[in-house]
């Protein structure tokens, strides 16, 4: 029963995010935003769908038993969810699942973006480990973490190029680390 409630929570959360992303996409495109990375976006969607299917299958085939370390893993999961909300709220209408860049916009440098260039990708990376580990779906954690690294290596490159061309991204973030929380080098 716990597994099904947890899985339902993740599905509802992801669907809610897609609704937010669609509203933001409409607003951004009305303002003149350009979309980048259309070619690889389908692979990101596929990765996330297959991740959820793999998690479901692996966990249920093993009896959907919660990990003996569930208090620590669940705490980590809740922290990632708080960070996810903080990230989405910090970006506001600029948050999206697609790469949509508004020409000449100033990049968001508040919230977690004060320390990291890509906090949302860090959160997803942690989720790809924590979600399956909570129900001992070890293969899902390993395989999809590796696949996520491959997909993000393309995604981040495209996103950063688009932001450098169309916004003040380069001047704002050129000295900041991509994934580790450190202050900019002075």
UniProtKB/TrEMBL annotation:
Its Gene Ontology molecular function terms?
protein C-terminal S-isoprenylcysteine carboxyl O-methyltransferase activity
Q: Does the keyword Transcription apply?
A: no
Give any single GO term for biological process. Answer: methylation
The record, for InterPro entries, names: ICMT_MeTrfase (IPR007269), Metal_cation-efflux_comp (IPR052527)
- Name the domain of life this protein comes from: Bacteria
Tell me how this protein sits in the membrane: Multi-pass membrane protein
**Where do transmembrane segments lie in this chain?**
40-57, 69-89, 121-147
Q: Name one GO cellular component term.
A: membrane
Q: Where in the cell is it found?
A: Membrane
Q: Does the keyword Transferase apply?
A: yes
Cite the entry's keywords alphabetically: Membrane, Methyltransferase, Transferase, Transmembrane, Transmembrane helix
Q: Which Pfam families match?
A: ICMT
> What is the designated name of this protein?
Methyltransferase
Species name: Paranoxybacillus vitaminiphilus
Taxonomy of origin reads:
Bacteria, Bacillati, Bacillota, Bacilli, Bacillales
């Amino acid at each position: 029963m716990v597994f099904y409630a947890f899985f339902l929570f993740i599905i509802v959360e992801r669907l809610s995010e897609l609704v937010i992303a669609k509203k933001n996409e409409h607003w951004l495109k009305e303002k003149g935003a350009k979309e980048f990375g259309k070619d690889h976006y389908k692979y990101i969607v596929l990765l996330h769908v297959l991740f959820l299917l793999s998690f479901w299958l692996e966990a249920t085939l093993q009896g959907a038993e919660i990990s003996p370390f569930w208090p620590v893993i669940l705490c980590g999961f809740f922290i990632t969810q708080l960070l996810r909300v903080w990230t989405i709220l910090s970006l506001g209408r600029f948050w999206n699942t697609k790469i949509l860049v508004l020409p000449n916009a100033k990049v968001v440098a508040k919230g977690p973006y004060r320390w990291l260039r890509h906090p949302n990708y860090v959160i997803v990376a942690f989720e790809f480990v924590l979600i399956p580990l909570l129900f001992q779906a070890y293969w899902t954690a390993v395989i999809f973490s590796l696949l996520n690294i491959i997909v993000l290596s393309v995604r981040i490159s495209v996103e950063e190029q688009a932001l450098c061309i169309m916004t003040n991204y380069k001047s704002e973030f050129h000295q900041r680390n991509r994934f580790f929380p450190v202050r900019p080098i002075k």
